[in-house]
């Protein structure tokens, strides 16, 4: 019953018109051989893999789940074969450097690939989703011999990595962790302790698994300043098993095909990555990549929910609609997609999915520019903007993915509540993304306190400048530019208000952070749709996408942008202290 087809036409629109990525690639020596036809060919192949290989395993993987026996995990039927097909297709190497066997393609293409993987089969994609972040972490911080030994196997897909942070007493506060590491005479370390909630901590997709583990050295400072990062392989050279074992998997609300493991390190051999007691700095390279990917999970859920709700609404007939498109005759019962309540839900699904796609791909494109642009100021500016966007994408996209999946379930009525129609699986699967890789509350605090107030508004000012530039261009072509100008004014004003009050009321930014992040999310969608409406007018009148983009932009500004004022009111209401619960 569940279908997924990659939205290739909209992806191409974002690449070509919204981002003008092909022109930007020509200015980056690393990508100058890449053009739009080749990029579209990559997207088509990724879409084919997602629709034909992964999507058919989504519901069956959910029903079967993972099996755990005697320390071994067996993934659902078909998962291992799908992973081999993924490796054979060269997908792990897509955005990795050619030095280590990669294809050297942009992270923008990888972002599109990740959206498709998560939209078609979130649980399966959990095994591969952390790989690029681990690759970046080791490429940036690992000693040369570790890079030469392990990076080619990650890039080829021969091994899969994990991120081992959480312990029973240490979740968001990793400074509370107790896992220990002791230096050995040969320069390696022995790690002892336990970790939990480790995605892919044990599985049958690859023989080796590379664990990136946060642990504490003897005499290390307390808190997060005393945490170090280590690489701990499941298998040592010669095929010997390392002293790390899985002692159970979680039985979860969703992503049941993903093995969420508890791991025990019993004097396991590992090697230091980066500097001692500075493990978080190294791990954040991995976590920032993971947070962008988690945001794309929210986008993927919104897209797949939109596709399936739209298809069902066309088939399901109930009552006469009060109005119909011109030329459609009245029937005894109309498809529910004619009814205003359902049209509103379906248009919101489309507006959010397509708007988030543009913003999410923009962040990936900025990361490409931060690494590959020829001049230093451009690289620095791109990185600053990408880092500012990351917490918004992670938190706002995942929140919307869950909310929109719930709205899509409503389109199905009672059928949506039964497993046969699978929208209930999307709702369950999407919920976790709001929690892991730094909860959405942590993201809100990071955005407002570190990225905006802590930066004295410099990166935020750059974002506003980009939005104002678009507003000026949009004013010449559409009426949306004026509304975007007003939105920028409101954002600038509320940022200054929060900064002024934070000087005397220390807790106020924490109370306002959640609504500030949501305000930024809505504003970014406004920016996205103002640009989409402008550049879509350059398409031929005969292209259906032109009319669709303009209609959806009108819907967004009329029906969805008013949420910005609600968030502004909530930010100002947060000036009132919260009572303590007793």
Please, could you describe this protein's structure?
- There is one protein chain.
- The protein has 582 residues and is of the alpha+beta class.
- Among the domains are: 8-138, Orthogonal Bundle (Butyryl-Coa Dehydrogenase, subunit A, domain 1), CATH 1.10.540.10; 159-277, Butyryl-CoA Dehydrogenase, subunit A, domain 2 (Beta Barrel); 440-576, no CATH class.
- Helix content is 57%, strand content 10%.
- The protein is built from 18 helices and 9 strands.
- Strands 3, 4, 5, 6, 7, 8 and 9 form a 7-stranded mixed beta sheet that branches. A two-stranded antiparallel ribbon has the order 1-2.
- Helix 10 packs across helix 16 (508-536).
- The longest helix is centred in the middle third of the chain and has 37 residues, at 279-315.
- The protein is globular.
- The mean pLDDT is 96.
Task: Tag the structure with descriptive keywords.
582 residues; Butyryl-Coa Dehydrogenase, subunit A, domain 1; two-stranded antiparallel ribbon; alpha+beta; globular; 9 strands; seven-stranded mixed sheet; 57% helix; 18 helices; Butyryl-CoA Dehydrogenase, subunit A, domain 2
> Cα-atom Rg, whole angstroms?
24 Å
Strand share of the residues?
A: 5-15%
The N- to C-terminal Cα distance equals: 49 Å
Number of helices: 18
Report the sheet with the most strands, covering strand number, pairing sense and barrel closure: 7 strands, mixed
User: Can you count the beta strands?
Assistant: 9
Inertia-based shape: globular
Task: List unreliable stretches of 5+ residues.
Answer: none
Average pLDDT confidence is: 96
Structural class: alpha+beta
N-to-C order of helices and strands = HHHEEHHHHHEEEEEEEHHHHHHHHHH
Percent helix:
55-70%
